[in-house]
Amino acid sequence: MKHTLLSILLLATTALAGELVLKDDFSAPKLDQRRAMRGEWKFSDNTATCTQDDELFKKYQNHGTILFYDLAYTDGVIETAFQADAAVKSVVFTCNAEGGHLFRIVFGPKGASIRAFPPESKEHASIALATETALTLKPGQWTPLRVELRGTQISVRCGDFSKTYEHASFARPKVNFSLGHAFGTLSVKPVFALK
Fold this sequence. Notes:
The chain has helices spanning 2-15, 54-59, and strands spanning 20-24, 34-37, 42-44, 47-51, 65-73, 76-84, 90-97, 100-108, 111-116, 127-132, 142-150, 153-158, 161-166, 174-182, 185-188, 191-194. By secondary structure, it is mainly β. It is globular and about 40 Å long. Residues 1-16 have low confidence and may be disordered.
């Protein structure tokens, strides 16, 4: 019941913001726009769950499990919620442009790092825009996440936290977004995207 209510609330808030272009309620193990990678993802009760496989972590050069969503967009809104267990060291939300990363939030035990990836940087290096100590991982608790992309600005809302970040590179066309983690077990609630 709680999971269904969360899905309804997320859909209700997104319906006010624009045209729904992606809805993944994890009711099916496959979805054309979803790529569940680097681990054995399980889908049940409108939740996707994966525990890191240490062998795969090494194979992918210390990159953990990930849910990719292939979606071409420039501006839009993405909403979901995630739950990390006590063994999770990081949860990573990323928006990608053609050729690589564009924006990233890395949630950890001491807060979240907000990063931009300027296209002109050598070796696709990122720059830190902020460190948000209010955005710590809370093991066992559901964390709602809403990311709104408008031109050169990205607004992040996580529970009571809300802040907007600006960088010229954010205006580039995007090709996908992802949510992943390192170590432990991550669960993800339905994902919605609007244009």
